[in-house]
Amino acid sequence: MVLILNVALLTFDKIYNTMETASFTGLVRTLLWIVFIYYVLKFLMRLLAPYLFQQVVKKAEENFRSQQQNYQQNYTQQNTQQSTQSEKPREKKKIGEYIDFEEVE
């Protein structure tokens, strides 16, 4: 147990000392790396963005076409079902007797 605590303290000491010895050149180097990575990603996105955009548009077009086909299939099925149902004669409701009114002058 004591050995584990000693190792932990030594590790903490090493980390703390390296943090104390951080320098201005290390900060500048880190900032330069960040700027470099930013410009590399920006350049790559200019090259890859048109391709990625085309892929997104193709996928959306495929989804739209499949939805349109499903809608048309459902619509034709409903029409065939309605036409078979409408072929059966319906009973006409007799509401009342027809009265022919004459105009009075």
Write a structural description.
This protein has 105 residues and is an all-alpha fold. It contains 2 helices and no strands. The chain has helices spanning 2-20, 24-86.
The dominant shape is elongated
Number of strands: 0
Poorly predicted parts = none
Largest sheet: none
Percentage of helical residues? over 70%
One letter per element, helices H and strands E, the order comes to HH
Radius of gyration: 40 Å
Task: Report the total helices.
Answer: 2
Strand content: under 5%
N→C terminal distance: 121 Å
Please specify the SSE layout and strand pairing.
Layout: H1 2-20, H2 24-86
Keywords:
105 residues, mainly alpha, 2 helices, elongated
In short:
The chain is mainly alpha-helical and 105 residues long.
